[in-house]
Write a structure and sequence with these properties.
Keywords: Membrane, Transmembrane, Transmembrane helix. The chain is mainly alpha-helical. The protein has two helices and no strands. 0% of the residues are buried.
Length: 61
């Protein structure tokens, strides 16, 4: 019976610590997003956004 209480206590403590650290990590992530400019765009997205030239290949024959 004592083992069940010990195991339950450890399980509750482990779960509480995981939730606490996860919330702390989420808060840090949200603060870092808040400090970025609103309209900042990823350079890869800008590259994808540019139109492709239609005649980028030479003639086949």
């Amino acid at each position: 019976m004592e083992y069940l209480l010990i195991f339950g206590g450890i399980l509750i403590a482990y779960t509480a610590i995981r939730i606490w650290f996860g919330a702390k990590r989420a808060k840090v992530y949200a603060e870092s997003l808040k400090n970025q400019p609103y309209n900042a765009m990823d350079p890869a997205l800008q590259k994808m956004d540019q139109p492709v030239k239609e005649n980028h290949r030479g003639p086949i024959g």
